[in-house]
Design brief:
heterodimer; A: alpha/beta; Rossmann fold; 6-stranded mixed beta sheet; B: mainly alpha; binds adenosine-5'-triphosphate; binds magnesium ion
Chain lengths: 520, 366
């Protein structure tokens, strides 16, 4: 939709006629957008609509084929992120660009070090400035902690401090809350509202409608690379937003069928696992999952979820305890054995572990079953079969662009990469499916589809463990819910016998009995 | 202009451009030092193409570095940097010489045994490098460099052994001639043709084997299950592990095969060309190190290594005629190769530069 708004200094960002092609395929066609100073502006759109691309153009990471960008009413040529920062634009990617082995402080000042008159690093001056900023916006972090020891939410804080340190006025976030827990999301929202009050401009790409309603002033909707309209949040509700996004009415929650559990398929008994710092991350952890059951594990990030996954996947060493699938112990074997015993894992880190980004979609799609007879003959891969297999997954899970079997997974949009991982793991028909943040980065339509698929798998008798930071997702899908806190299960519930408040109370470290006392 | 930028974004075209820039730069250097670039170019060209004999010599000299190029490229696909190709080549030479001197079998079998020994030696050394990496995490570049030196000194030690050392020389006795892989005897029919002067060269089977190996390795990497695993581990070891692949074993296998290819290069080299013996090495002969450049120029494509290997050897061989015709210093050809490799390594800048120019022009037009 061409914008009728005049170029003016009231607007922090105005883009006109931005067009971008990748390999002759238009992913943005003549997009106009106006973002007013001092507002929080959301950008919504289906997976692969072109949101990240548009923002990457604003940040100078990509160059538009056509179109102009105006900042504060003046034309700007943003050739590179470096120029963007000079123009007071900063971006926080979904995958943080921090150096794990460096401290918070070192990460923040990297590339923008303050020096004294002798050209020597002036750490004191930098430290004071960072402290000043972090106090001002209540973004408190330990400046001397190493990044690798921090939770994702804290890392995000560091990213935000990093761009604030560079004195930006326009902050772009690409799916900032995908990795945050509900309370962390609330904090994040109040932080960005604070920025807007201060006169800074915030642009947020997100799939979470609720969050848009709570945080934003306006929302621009992008559908297949076209701006289909900007709305005032005060004029719409969630359902309208969703409909505008996909172009037809949508069902926002999947229906669940009756729960008929079978035998115990998977069992963990007294599992103890140390993390890298030799501290017990899982402490006498036990759980059981039955066939046809979705067990939701609720918990704040960093309470042992990662170690749990890594020890089941045999990527980490188990100190003591037993992990058992269909009566067979698998702890401390190898990932191949885990696979052969029918355990499929939708890993939360799709870029580093779930996918090989430089492999094509077809090559990624067969990663878990390339050893099967159908895929090769005498050690030679059967290209035709593999392509057919990949095409089938692409169609079934609506992975876009449609004919993507031979393009590298790197070139898919974030949500479509996630769909590829989900498609691959579910289609392997496992005995146990472990889904960690399965709908991270998916649009509402896709979330609904994945939820339906998970329920269908459960109805077919698979055991499913769902680990999610989304309380809604846990509540909606689980048959039973366990709460993980500090490496232990602190409560097991039948879904029907509990509620969000109780779960939330335990997640935050409350005692089960206290809760009962509190409500009685 | 956009078509030009598109053209330049193709890897092949930016490769040719790099080579071109390399030549231009070296000609400038030559001009500065007082040699006529045209004379140098024509001498280089004639040195390579003027007679079938010269072309054949380029092929013969190119064979070993095509192999080591493939060896490096293969390891690279598996995520490993085979800095030790040089050492693997040297141990391959030693093993071939020992086998070729001790055994005394009918020609065909003798060749077979010598080649197997050479290949095996390279395989073992490569495998050891891989094992150290897989088991202890010792970086393959470090061990590679150390093994290169160890191999060099072992080689000099073998030359000094009484059984092998040829008195009053700094080399060993040649191996038994039943182990030679020269083809001159089989090409008698060329005697009266235009190609007759090929018979003056040490034409041998090496290049044919090199082509076969290039095709085979390329097939393994692109079409087979093993190749899928190797490249997966090379691109993202964590993801490969998670997918149930044994990355440790993979590291060892890849280094074994890579080392084997370098060893094979050595075996075919010592059996194919005189003096069929080993001399005291004062320093490295660069058969392996040149493989690194060959693989780089070929962008780690095994088939590409055939062409880039020939290109490299053309420069080396043609450079000799430059030296004799024009008395250019021998360094000049090394500078030329260095510059070309440099440009290939930074080839990515060409499309960027073109884009810049394009934008600038658009601005001045509109
Ligand atoms: N580097 C690239 N090369 C080729 N195609 C690309 C590249 N980056 C993105 N694309 C394609 O451009 C389209 C838009 O991608 P983009 O990442 O902007 O989507 P998105 O709206 O951010 O989606 P998501 O919500 O899934 O993150 C997709 O079809 C994607 O496959
Ligand atoms: Mg995106």
């Amino acid at each position: 939709m061409p914008s009728k708004i005049k170029i003016s200094s009231q607007y922090a960002v105005q883009m006109r006629g931005v067009t971008k092609k990748f390999n002759n395929k238009k992913v943005l066609s003549s997009v106009d957008i106006d973002i007013k100073k001092g507002t929080v502006h959301a950008i919504l759109g289906e997976n692969g609509a072109g949101k990240s691309t548009l923002m990457n153009i604003l940040y100078g990471f990509y160059r538009a084929d056509e179109g102009t960008i105006f900042l504060n009413g003046k034309i700007a040529e943003i050739k590179s992120p470096h120029v963007a920062i000079r123009n007071k634009i900063g971006m926080v990617y979904q995958h943080f660009m921090l150096i794990d082995k460096f401290t918070v402080m070192e990460n923040i000042i990297l590339g923008n070090e303050m020096v004294n008159k002798f050209g020597v690093l002036d750490l004191k001056k930098s430290r004071n400035r960072i402290l000043e900023i972090s106090n001002k916006y209540s973004l408190l972090v330990d400046l001397d902690a190493k990044i690798e020891d921090m939770s994702v939410a804290m890392q995000q804080r560091v990213e935000i401090l990093k761009i604030l340190y560079r004195e930006v006025d326009i902050l772009i976030f690409d799916e900032p809350t995908a990795v945050l827990s509900p309370t962390e999301i609330e904090d994040f929202i109040s932080t960005i509202r604070g920025f807007a009050l201060e006169g800074k401009t915030v642009i947020v790409i997100t799939h979470k409608l609720k969050e848009i309603m709570n945080s934003s002033d306006k929302c621009t909707i992008i559908r297949s690379g076209v701006n289909v309209g900007t709305v005032n949040i005060s004029d719409v509700d969630q359902k309208e937003l969703a409909e505008k996004m996909v172009g037809h009415t949508v069902e926002l929650s999947a229906k669940k069928t009756k729960f008929t559990p079978g035998n115990v398929v998977f069992k963990i008994t007294d599992l103890c696992v140390e993390n890298e710092k030799k501290v017990l991350a899982l402490d006498n952890f036990s759980l059981k999952v039955r066939a046809g059951e979705i067990l939701g594990i609720a918990g704040v990030d960093g309470n042992g979820q990662r170690e749990l996954i890594d020890s089941i996947a045999c990527l980490a060493k188990v100190k003591s305890g037993v992990i058992e699938i269909c009566g067979k112990q698998i702890q401390n074997t190898n990932p191949c054995n885990v696979l052969n015993n029918g355990i499929a894992i939708i890993h939360e880190d799709r870029e580093k572990i779930g996918l090989i980004l430089d492999y094509t979609v077809a090559e990624n799609s067969m990663m878990k079953n390339y050893k099967l007879k159908d895929f090769s003959k005498n050690g030679i891969l059967k290209k035709k079969f593999i392509d057919k297999f990949a095409k089938n997954l692409i169609n079934k899970y609506d992975i876009k662009p449609e004919n993507c079997i031979n393009i590298p997974a790197r070139n898919l949009s974030g949500g479509n990469q996630q769909k590829l991982v989900i498609a691959r793991e579910i289609s392997s028909k496992p005995n146990l499916l472990i889904a960690v943040q399965p709908t991270r980065g998916l649009d509402v339509g896709a979330i609904e589809y994945v939820h339906r698929m998970l329920i269908k798998e459960r109805d077919e008798g698979r055991a499913i463990i769902l680990i999610s930071l989304e309380m809604d997702e846990i509540m909606q899908l689980s048959d039973t819910i366990s709460v993980i806190y500090n490496g232990c299960i602190v409560g097991n519930f039948d879904r029907k016998m509990t509620n969000e408040r109780e779960i939330g109370f335990l997640m935050a470290g409350g005692e089960k009995n206290d809760y009962n006392l509190k409500i009685s | 202009m956009t078509t030009i930028s598109k053209f330049l974004k193709k890897p092949v075209s930016s490769l040719f451009l790099s080579v071109f820039c390399g030549f231009v730069t070296s000609f400038i250097i030559l001009a500065i030092t007082g040699y006529s670039p045209f004379e140098v170019a024509s001498s280089l060209f004639n040195g390579i193409f003027s007679r079938p004999k010269h072309i054949m010599n380029v092929v013969i000299k190119g064979m070993p570095i095509i192999f080591t190029g493939i060896s490096v490229a293969f390891a690279f696909k598996g995520g490993l940097f085979n800095m030790g190709a040089e050492g693997q080549f040297i141990v391959g030479t030693i093993a071939s010489l020992i086998a070729g001197s001790i055994f005394d079998l009918p020609p065909f079998f003798q060749v077979l045994v010598v080649v197997v020994f050479g290949t095996l030696a390279g395989t073992l050394l490569g495998g050891l490098t891989g094992f150290l990496k897989a088991k202890f995490g010792t970086h393959e570049v470090i061990t590679g460099i150390m093994f290169n030196w160890i191999a060099l000194y072992i080689s000099n030690f073998v030359v000094s052994l009484k059984n092998f050392h040829r008195p009053n020389s700094n080399s060993t006795f040649p191996m038994k001639d039943s182990g030679f892989t020269g083809l001159r005897g089989n090409l008698g029919f060329l005697k009266d043709s235009f190609f007759s002067d090929i018979l003056k060269t040490e034409v041998n089977v090496g290049i044919i084997v090199a082509i076969v190996v290039a095709i085979f390795v390329s097939f393994i990497l692109n079409k087979t299950q093993k190749g899928y695993e190797i490249c997966a581990a090379g691109l993202n070891a964590e993801a490969a592990k998670f997918a149930g692949m044994n990355v440790y074993k993979n590291t060892i296998y890849v280094m074994m095969i890579s080392g084997g290819i370098s060893g094979l290069a050595a075996a075919l080299s010592i059996t194919g060309t005189s003096p069929h013996s080993i001399s005291i090495l004062a320093g490295f002969e660069n058969n392996g190190f040149n493989g690194l450049s060959v693989a780089l120029i070929a962008n780690n494509s095994p088939i590409g290594c055939i062409f880039s290997g020939l290109f490299f050897s053309g420069l080396i061989y043609g450079g000799k005629s430059m030296q004799s015709d024009l008395k250019t210093p021998s360094e000049i050809i090394n500078i030329m190769m260095g510059v070309i490799v440099f440009f290939v390594a930074v080839a990515r800048i060409f499309p960027i530069i073109v884009d810049r120019l394009l934008k600038r022009r658009q601005k001045s037009n509109g």
